[in-house]
Amino acid sequence: MNEQAIRTGIALALLxxxxxxxMTYGGLAYRRELLVAALRALVxxxxxxxxxxxxxxxxxxxFLYLGVMLVVAAYTSNRRIGGDSRDRLGILLAIFLGASATxxxxxxxxxxxxxxxxxxxxxxxxxxxxxxxxxxxxxxxxDDVKDQFTVFEGYVALGATYRQAxxxxxxxxxxxxxxxxxxxxxxxxxxxxPGAFVxxxxxxxxxxxxxxIQLLVLIGLLLVxxxxxxxxxxxxxxxxPAGHGGARA
Amino acid sequence: xxxxxxxxxPEVFRLEDVSVSYGEQLAVxxxxxxxxxxxxxxxxxPSGCGKTTLLRCLNRLNDLIPEARVGGLVSYRGTxxxxxxxxPIEIRQRIGMVFQKPNPFPKSIRDNVxxxxxxxxxxxDLDELVERCLTRVGLWDEVRNDLGRxxxxxxxxxxxxxxxxxxxxxxxxxxxxDEPAASLDPIATERIExxxxxxxxxxxxxxxxxxxxxxxxxxDHTAFFAAEFDEQGARRGRLVEHAPTAVLFEDxxxxxxxxxxxxxxx
Lengths: 249, 266
Fold this sequence. Notes:
Structural class of chain B: alpha/beta
Number of helices of chain B: 10
Radius of gyration of chain B: 19 Å
Strand content of chain B: 25-35%
Oligomer: heterodimer
Shape of chain B: globular
Structural class of chain A: mainly alpha
Helix content of chain B: 25-40%
């Protein structure tokens, strides 16, 4: 183990111990969760680092990695929404189309080098953003339908299918799911320094290059999320499956 | 109310031993009755007696509640509504519904009325249809210059008439009304009541109401439901008595009907 790794380990241990101490002092609950979350992050990130290091030497494996990521994202988002297997398939499609459209543009223009080293992390970030949006948009859609159930019933009572009735709610739900990213994009560099930017600075890149990459990520996420939100709110059922406090055909 | 001799009206609905339950909970038990064409039939009774539950069975809107189960026979013009091969979408286009709280869509007045026909991809002249339906509910003169305005800006009474117009636009056979005037002021209520009587010339209307005076004013037939409690204390609705409105109010056969009417009118 090199010296840098040891120093990092010491810093992490101190950070975690301090956080736990503060929680104890302040009487905050969820100390266990904090510890578990930190340990999970440690294991996951080290594992991912090892896998990605391997993929960089075996670039074909990148597709497999992204495929797995896509499936996990769809599962995670669908669980958040409380959907069934058909919803999950729709969400998978929404995430895939959103992320691949963006990656395609970035790759074809040559803005990022056509290599696993640059496209893999970018794609992963796009899939992650798409997952968040799919969850937000799906939860929003179902909440809106639940909150305005008499209006939903009005559509159904006129002979609309549940999906047709749901479509009347999907526009608004898709729009609302974009707010966090819009805010994040607007405030980039003012309120926070976004992740890729910080990472590249820490990694020794020039601030201008860091800004370039960060812009690709931010604007890329906007496209990803528009596509994913639109598709998600149209393909999933507007009603939770039986047993989740709703009904569906 | 003067729709002539009830005997000449063919039956639209026939209910035989209809029970509705939500999961383990029985909401309505063993209802047997017929509902005749082009008449207003009122369902009255105390809260929790299952009137609305029964009403929502008549256009399969209870399908929206996954735990809802309907037993017995609900026959609509000779078709078992819950039989195999029955398309609830088609049923709901034939059997419209007006809800207790006006539920206009967040769209323009015109688009509210045109929603149903557009669903069916009707190419006919929608402007003419919109005008006809709005005229029928007495709303045309109030909104003719404002068809593009959001329906949400209308008053409660106007919204409820718009909802009825929206329902007429798909050319239904039956209109179910679940306390359509419960949230309206007396003047708006009167307009809705007048409208019900007018519409009964062309449509079969089934009305749930808490307002006994309203039933006497608009209904040709009235069915009284009561809530009963079983040994475990669970409440369920039962049909007590169903008769021409004048008969039910002037000469009720069942003591429970007499008590309810006396109590509510006192």
